[in-house]
Structure formats: structure tokens, C-alpha cells
Specification:
- Strand 1, helix 1 and strand 2 form a beta-alpha-beta unit.
- The chain is α/β, with parallel strands linked by helices.
- It is about 30% helix and about 25% strand.
Amino acid sequence: MTTDVFRLPAEWAPQAAVLVAWPHAGTDWAPRLFQTESTYTALVLAITRFQPAIVCVADEAVRTRAAALLDNAGVDATRVRFVEIPYDDTWLRDSGPITLTDGARFRLHDFRFTGWGGKFEASRDDRLIEGLVARGLFAHAEHRRIDWALEGGAIESDGRGTILTTWRCLHQRHPEQSREAIAQMLRKSLGARRVLWLDRGYLEGDDTDAHIDTLARFAPGDAIVYQACEDPADPHHDELAAMREELAALRTADGRPYTLHALPWPRPIIDGERRLAASYANYLIVNGAVLMPVYGDPADAGAAQVIAAAHPGREVVPVPCRPLIWQNGSLHCVTMQLPAGALG
């Protein structure tokens, strides 16, 4: 039903497909490309059990390699659509389209992508959405370029007009703007009625400046799933405890507290001298399932139970994500869901 109000749907709303970009030797994945391709193969296999996947490839050689790996894994080729397009990196949660709908029409909001505040080269990623539109991917959606920096991993939507985000990230992107000015921009550009802020919470090894999708996620029934840390000796303990108190103080649009679901804490994963950002909150919701990052940790099973409780009626499907966190992101970071009806 048309509402005449364009809003960012909740991730658990019906989807047309999930968008990913295949890693290749010209990306930062090159030193560990084989392991990374294994994770992408498992990811696309999991997605296509439930809905189509759109796979961006840099050129014909990358397409041929990706198609062979997916075929060998038993992926249903009729559920995979390849799109040849240039890109700098594969974090499509942040460079991909943020799609709003009024229930019948669709708008692709194409925010400026700055490589997470200028940390990395991002000129091709900033043109990715324009390129996808030019290739006819979104025949049923209006493309709107918005000259304001925002990444999809920085925002959570409940689909009913509430956005959850972190001050640490958006203040870094827009240091000259007040909290209210940023909130006003989010309300205007995302069709939101209100913005909820977290001031606490971070993960070591995260170079996104505390993206919300590594920390706390909306779930159906006025619930929030969040990454907890039960180890008092861990440097994250106090910060994530403070974040939990902030979450407990938040209220729904009608004034009730949210139901909170605490995710267990995996053991530290160290690469050389660097701790990697392993978060169970970085899961992806698809039609009928939740694809969950796993790290070969005893806490994997407990995290699956929490996610299943927060998303009843959906199958929880584990996807091995240790190769992804080597580059400071996880499963949600490399994907972008597309609402049902948005594709051509």
C-alpha cells in the first residue's frame, strides 16, 4: 500500500536480491584472495538459497573466475546475476544504494562515499550506484544523488521512521555540523521521524569510526540485538557496558523500552600485532533467514541462539567470516539488500 512517505525499510522487509562485489587481485584482498573468495562463495551460496544475488565483477576475467567457483560450490546459476562495473573495494554496505520506498515507488539515495572519512581511495566506489543505474539494474527506481557523506553501515532503520546511529561516526564525517543538524539531514534524506544516538561503543580494528551495524541492530517487535562483552579484563568491557546502558535508556516511538538481546563475546582474534573486529552483530537478514558471521569460536553457537530468538521464524545460517575481518569488516559490511520491487 502506498503511504506517500518514502522511508528506509527495515532489513527484515521483503527483498528482491542482495548486492555484493567479488574480490579480486586488484583489491586490498589480494594477499589473502583464496581465503576471501572461499568466504564469498559460501556467502553467495547462502544468499541464493533464499533469493537472488547480484554480483559485481571488475571485468570478464573476474566474472569467469567467480562463476566457476560458485558453480563448483553448487550455487544455482539462475539466482546469480553478474554486473561488470569498476570498483575500488567490496564493502557494498557503504558504497551501495540506500533504497527508500513508499510501498509502491522506490528511490535510490546515492550519498557521497568518502572512503570512511578519506581513509582510503574511493572515487570509483563513489560512482558505483550511478554505474549500476546506467547498466539498467534499477529500472523501477528513481536515482537521487545526495552530496552529503553517509555509509549504509552507519544507520539502522526499524522501517517505521526511527533511525539508530552513532555520534562517533557521523561527527567524524561532519565535524562542522551539530548533532541536531545531522539529525535533521538524516530525517530529511531517510524519511525518518526521529533519530536515536549512541555515544558509546566501539570495536578495536574497526576503521569505520563505530558503524552501528557492528554494535547494535534493530529487530522485529521493538527489539535491539547488541554486541556485549562479558570479560571484565577485555578493553571493550566498560565501553560496551556503557553502550548497553544507553540502549536500555532508549524508548520506542510510543514510549516503551526496547527488548534487548545481548550477543556473546568472541575471544580476541589477533593478526600479527593487530586485533581484528569480530562482531556477531554484523549479520545480514534475507527472506526467511539470517546469515550470521562465525569465527570458529565457542561463542558462535550462543550467538546463533540469540539471533534466532530475536528473529523468530527465520533460519540462522552460519557463514565463516575470519577472512573478512582481516580487512576490518564482516558479513553485513560486504552486502547490501535491495527491497522487493526495486529491480528492473
